[in-house]
Amino acid sequence: MQCRPSVNHGGAATPKALTINTLSKSDQAIIQPGGNAWYKKTYMDIGVAHLMAMFTDLSFDISLLRISTTEQSAVAIVSYRLGGLHMGKPATTFGLGAINLIKKNDQWLIQHIHNSDMQVY
């Protein structure tokens, strides 16, 4: 895994250089394709809060498909499924994701999560 000082993805760029402190703080930057560079709280409040409010009785499953590690970093490829009730009717979304992790003080911390477009059934 390579941590770059800035990311430009579809017009979304990190607001500042990424360092070990910004990578491991609780409100890390989250980049989504074609969107804005949001911090976690903003992303939850503005980016997905309205979607989460439409679902009730949520369940979330994640399965590890592949992992690649070094001494200080790792990348996990996962499949996920999110199920629940949407406007009172059962709905399930699923997709793939890549999770970048860094190791700090013998703990693995999530640096970035990137999901594929969700499929719904």
TrEMBL record:
Top-rank taxon, per record: Bacteria
Lineage: Bacteria, Pseudomonadati, Pseudomonadota, Gammaproteobacteria, Cellvibrionales
Organism annotation: Oceanicoccus sagamiensis
Official protein name in the record: SnoaL-like domain-containing protein
